[in-house]
Amino acid sequence: GKERSPGEYRLYRPSTVHLPAHEMIALERDLHRALNEDGLRLMLQPIVTADSQPGARVTLAGVEALVRIEHPERGVLSPDTFIPVAEASGLILPLGAWVMEQGLAWLADATRQGLDTQTIAFNVSAREIHAGGLVERLAAGLERHDLAAQRIILEVTENVMLEHDSVVRETFDALRALGCKLAIDDFGTGFSSLSYLQHLPFDIVKIDRCFVGEVHTAPRQAALVAAMIEMGHALGLSVTVEGIELHEQASRCLASGADHLQGYYFCRPLPAAEALARFITL
Ligand code: C2E
Ligand code: MG
Ligand code: MG
Ligand code: MG
């Protein structure tokens, strides 16, 4: 790979720089094609609330928008592969705009059809914040689809905040002034999650799924998750735990006070077209 300064290295996901150049070029071409030839797919995954009693009712709190590329030869490409390339190339801007427009349209449609979902969460990359115009685009989309800003959550990971410039702060303030909520995603996996919680106006913390795998069997992991939930609450935040695959993991997190859960145990991400029918029965 090319020489990069440490600062530049950390701005995007480290995986970008480990891809061979020819693969990055191929992915960038795939992205271009997906954007121009209807190759992007919007997936939605429910975020639920539940009671800790066994057999308790699960209710839909909201959904998270997750994008895929449907590649003509290689099938479905995962965002973990192409988002870093999208970020490095700048294609994250049209991609993010596409996801947001599709997600808002889905929410408006789902609401008209009677689905009782409150929120939709969008993942936002550092590059989208630094490019400017995100708040205006979202405001225009909300107006066009006649949706309240209170139903929008923007999820950011820590690499958004690595640059301590005023753009991030101003964007966050503008998003909150509009009425949106802010979530810190993949909490606990970065270098300094705690310091960001201290300085930036988050509403929600999403505990990364790497803390959940053994939460029901390993006391140390259970203690860590419980402490993170307690800390989130002490700061007045709502806490979501990601990556719930088992009933036991769900009960353990609920017993520790988690407000929302997300994971394959409840539902995998579904294509937008199927999501409505499935979520209505959740
Ligand atoms: P994320 O925002 O942390 O999203 C959660 C990821 O965990 C999703 O992976 C989801 O499919 C997966 N997941 C959910 N439940 C479970 C579970 O029970 N077990 C396991 N093993 N995984 C689970 P996905 O869809 O592959 O997305 C990966 C990442 O790509 C996302 O992580 C997000 O950071 C990024 N991403 C996805 N869509 C977008 C987008 O539209 N824009 C941007 N900027 N990033 C996106
Ligand atoms: Mg997310
Ligand atoms: Mg996450
Ligand atoms: Mg993630």
TrEMBL record:
This is EAL domain-containing protein. It comes from Franzmannia qiaohouensis. Residues 24-282 form the EAL domain.
